[in-house]
Amino acid sequence: MANFDRAFIDQVLSSTDIVDVIKEKVNLTKNGANFKGLCPFHNEKTPSFNVSSSKQFYHCFGCGAHGDAIKFLQEHDNLTFIEALTKLAQAAGLELPEKTKKNDAHYNLFISNKLAADFYSRALKNNPKAKTYLESRGIDQDMVDVFHLGLSNNKWDDLTNLFAKEKIMNNAVEAGLIIKSNNKTYDRFRNRIMFPIRNSTGNIIGFGARVYNSEDGAKYLNSPETKLFHKSFELYGLYECKKEISKDKSVIIVEGYTDVIGLYKSGLRNCVATLGTAFTKHHFNKIKRYTNKIIFCFDGDTAGKSAAWKAISNCLTELKDEIQLSLVFLPEGCDPDSYVKTDRENFDNLIDNSMPLSQYIIEYLKSNKDTNTVEGKTSFALEAKKVLDQMPDIMYTDILREEIQEITGNVIPKESQTSNNKEKKTSSNTNQEFDIKELTLLSLFIEYPRLVKEFDCKNIISETSLKNIYDIITEEINHNKNFTAAHLLKLFPNNETIKTIVSFESNEKSEDSARVTIKEIFHQLELSSKEKIYFDLLNRYTDGQKLSDDEREFIKTFKK
Ligand SMILES: [Zn+2]
């Protein structure tokens, strides 16, 4: 194994969930934070084979077998190390490095980052002013040690000289530590407090950097995307906090690395932060390996609120019944770091009383809508459907749907089993009884498409799903001279309403007789839609509402 690329092995292991790997071969049941099953390596009747999801490790108390996912495949499937590694890499969608590259790429980037981090760390030690500055922000020597904080000097060539001396300039450029432009090289990070970012196995994959004693440049700067560092996958503090996250059985997700450090110092050692990006589903899948209880902590300002919705939207597809997601919004103007320092007790309180995801979704969707009106309910239902459609087919989704239906009065249909968006829009109300006149009208239009152009039925069809289909029919007929019922069925194979219309027997033998029938129905529908408008206006009038001139004119002429 000495000849294998340790960095790549780390990458494979951190992209693999040992529980998934072992579950394929051993029946596992959840046992607290771990999983338990009958040991595949010795005969036993009561399970003593344990798999730890957070440690990514298995151990048998009966025979002592233990190891990581690679070791498990080696032992269980009788594979060589490289075979097991290849198998896991393939499952994780990672390409095995070519034999020649094996020892190079990632490993050299790790080394470059480590070298830089140690350099930054020494620079901080030698700079009492910077240390005082950190202390004034509540970051003491303990925190500096735990998070391996450092300082990039206000120079353009500190690291450049270091890497030139080590003769590994290209690696440093590839690691994003040094910028090469027009044949000149210079340090990317200058005059900043440096926060090394570690992957879950502890190797440094990049840096976060915060301005220190100047107002120049962006407040925060990260390493660029490199072979090692992918912002939308990595979480700051995971390596430092993963033990506590498993032990505490929960994680608090914050927005900045100073928040992670501040909370850590106050004793909350189960926090991670995103790296200046939105929280992604990759983050979600990474963190749920350690705990099922995920608490988002956002600033209470507008930016925090929109970050929250973004984060939640990104996770919707990945939800699982056993995961408990909740949210905390701090008072406006507060960040977790400052808040926990001034009011620890209240912060704990907020975390303990975080808002469950379901409540958050409903409140978010309700905001700016009056769900006491039909209009408000409709727009709420439309947006709720979009959210529900993204969620997996789990109990949680069913229960949330029921909650939402309580508000809308039962009108959120379950997602139809099709991929056609146009169809989704029209496939509601499948089992309902339609008005026979409206149904006849549409079925005649499908049978005699040329007649569509002779009547404008837009405002006389009252049933929404039939109205939608009328729109589709007119659109299709305008674009396709040879429109037939078969054409429509092919476009919307699973639309029950269309099937109902097509299979409806109109009994008209010719276009001419169909025209007469349509005309008749048209007038009746027009009349009833006018009657409806008339009574609506009359009601409004007797309620004391003011009517427009047109509306009053309508009432007057309709009476005649
Ligand atoms: Zn065993």
Task: Tell me how many strands there are.
Answer: 16
Say which CATH homologous superfamily of the largest domain is assigned: DNAb Helicase, Chain A
Query: Per DSSP, what share of the residues sits in E-state strands of 2 or more residues?
Result: 5-15%
Structural class: alpha+beta
Shape: elongated
The fold-level CATH name of the largest domain is DNAb Helicase, Chain A
Q: What's the number of helices? A: 25
Small molecules held by this entry: zinc ion
- Overall pLDDT level: 85
Terminal CA distance reads 96 Å
Number of structural units classed as domains = 5
Unreliable spans: 416-431
The biggest sheet amounts to: 5 strands, antiparallel
Q: Provide the CATH top-level class of the largest domain.
A: Mainly Alpha
Tell me the radius of gyration: 32 Å
Strand order across the biggest sheet?
A: 1-2-3-4-5
Percentage of residues in helical conformation = 40-55%
CATH-derived architecture of the largest domain: Orthogonal Bundle
Description:
By secondary structure, this protein is an alpha+beta fold. It has 5 domains: 6-91, DNA Primase, Chain A, CATH 3.90.580; 105-222, DNA primase DNAg catalytic core, N-terminal domain (Alpha-Beta Complex); 238-363, Dna Topoisomerase Vi A Subunit, Chain: A, domain 2; 368-415; 425-555, Orthogonal Bundle (DNAb Helicase, Chain A), CATH 1.10.860. It has 25 helices and 16 strands. It starts with 5 loop residues before the first helix and ends with a helix. The protein binds zinc ion. The site of zinc ion has 8 residues, from loops.
